[in-house]
Amino acid sequence: MRSEDDLLSRLLDFLHRSPTPWHATANLAARLEAAGFRRLDEREPWSLTPGERVYVTRNDSSIVALRLPEGPLEALRMIGAHTDSPGLRLKPNAAQTAAGWLQLGVEVYGGALLAPWFDRDLGLAGRVHLRHADGRLEGRLLHVDRAVATIPSLAIHLDREANNGRALNAQTQMAPVLLQGGEASDLKGLLEGWIAEQHGLADVELLDFELGLHDMQPPARVGVHGELISGARLDNLLSCFIGLEALLAADGRQGALLVANDHEEVGSASACGAQGPFLGDVLRRVCERLGGGPGEGSEEAFIRLIQASRMISCDNAHALHPNFLDKHDAAHGPALNGGPVIKVNASQRYATNSATAALFRDLCREAEVPVQSFVTRADMGCGSTIGPITATELGVPTLDVGVPQWAMHSIRETAGSRDVAYLTRALTAFCNRAELA
């Protein structure tokens, strides 16, 4: 129990310190470096040694980490996740004023549930780019970790239909209030002041930013016996964290990889998204340096490596909701704390097939972990993950699994506390697995 408590403590800390994909990637990288992983630069030649542990980032928001085997690189046990979550992002010219208030113009990132964003204490975080006095340009992370904004609800006395399914307009009704009496010109000064406060930088000019709002309520264990985890961005930082824990816990005898892509929530079509070339670029360079046997370093060697490998795409699953039982197929309602969920869709919205599902069921048996299945109702649409995209881009045999959760895409989501250890154990067994066929 102590080890599981420690695992959850690390998870809550990671969630709290990762309000954006850039922060999540930086925190993953810091854990990797503390464990002896060496950072690679995509702009430089790579020198790799069997048995080495390395990682590489792209756009500061996506990361690939590898444990290279001591022997020939014949197969990789790949774990996939994504670093981004739905939310509210600031527009480039975000400052606007109304009724004596400086407000922030926002756009919705991904398929966010909008109603839970109202009446929250909101902080601000993301990436900024600066020009120093000597003309040098630099990117920095910014995390305003205190309540500086809120989106106030309209009183029900002025909107009697508020509880009758009224639609929300993100353009006109969701601009956060930031500063009473503020002018539009004040925003740049506020941001530069927060940058100076956080980084101790003087005489810098803010050139551009990618910033979003985040809930200031910290993640927590909930329930009489702490059986729940509640917090922001569980989809999909929970999978990033579990994948990292499994990679670090692996015995190192097999080749293993963690990829956490940005931009899954908006389709994955970017240079660092799953539909982009990032993972393929990394794997081709690794194969060129370490691929063994005939055709070493060739496209043939790369294809052999991919076909001998397996990918487990980890993205949270829809748990059975006690207030909405009819939203699930009667035979496929995953329970919180019931173990990881194999996600299946006949139309390939998930990449699972019977061969990859059988492998995962055997891994769960080996790790003494319960396993569940999810199929959406036949009369409802189905979401997707990086799994089908990665399988399409690389050709790697793939399955989709995830921890069951409630309130997916809300500003605050809920999962089962025991499921964190369950999936970590299953993925650790995957990283240590000698035979993948």
UniProtKB/TrEMBL annotation:
MF-aspect GO terms: aminopeptidase activity; metallopeptidase activity; zinc ion binding
Gene3D superfamilies the UniProt entry points to: Aminopeptidase i, Domain 2, Zn peptidases
GO biological process: proteolysis
UniProt superkingdom: Bacteria
InterPro entries with a match to the protein in the record: Peptidase_M18, Peptidase_M18_dom2
EC category name: hydrolase
CC per GO annotation: cytoplasm
EC number from the UniProt entry: 3.4.11.-
Pfam families xref list: Peptidase_M18 (PF02127)
Cofactor(s) for this UniProt protein: Zn(2+)
UniProt keyword Zinc present: yes
Coiled-coil spans in chain: none
Entry keyword set: Aminopeptidase, Hydrolase, Metal-binding, Metalloprotease, Protease, Zinc
UniProt cross-references to NCBIfam families, sorted A to Z: PRK02813.1
Family designation: Belongs to the peptidase M18 family.
Identification of the protein by name: M18 family aminopeptidase
Source species: Halomonas shengliensis
Lineage: Bacteria, Pseudomonadati, Pseudomonadota, Gammaproteobacteria, Oceanospirillales
